[in-house]
Design a protein that fits this description.
Layout: E1 12-21, E2 26-33, E3 39-46, E4 50-57, E5 60-68, E6 73-77, E7 80-82, H1 89-101, E8 103-115, E9 124-135, E10 146-151, H2 153-161, H3 168-183
Parallel strand pairs: 4-9
Antiparallel strand pairs: 1-2, 2-3, 4-5, 4-7, 5-6, 5-10, 8-9
Helix pairs in contact: 2-3
GO molecular function, one term: hydrolase activity
Cofactor: Mg(2+)
Protein name: ADP-ribose pyrophosphatase
Amino acid sequence: MTHINRNKFEEITLSTQPVFQGRVISLQVDTVRLPNGETATREIVKHPGAVAVLALLNDRMLVVEQYRKPLEKSQVEIPAGKLDAGEDPLDAAKRELEEETGYRCGSIEKICSFYTSPGFADEILHLYVAQDLTKGTVKLDEDEFLECESLSLEEAQQYIREQRISDAKTITAVYAWQAYKLTGSF
């Protein structure tokens, strides 16, 4: 068996210059040594990580519509949010589900984790599927304005075609749901 050198592309950090520290993200510029010995700079967004929930209720997925300022438009997305410092992703997923949709789950399992934009950010997103939902209480953040609705798989696919759903976490969740309906497993 051939051994693969996974570090052959490693970039060694020579220095880090903090640029911005916000409530959610920070920005830094790293000077790195490239594998060929040259140096380059990398602009890096640091993020605490996030969770997202494919919440299934009566063969429909719960989604929220909210305005996304970077896109200058409203988007339909699955419930999601950032991790608080030291928070377990499973606990965060349950919290975000209830805060944004008003539902609690009887069962929840992890589908996968993925990096959202590894070319410039370290944000990792943990995607869960929640089922056996019961009504709880919506608890939106003071600066959060959204509406919750439910979609069939066909409606979600149509929203993707119309770009009403256009974020990676929701598209991933829709395709995971489609695979589940075909195979019986996530």
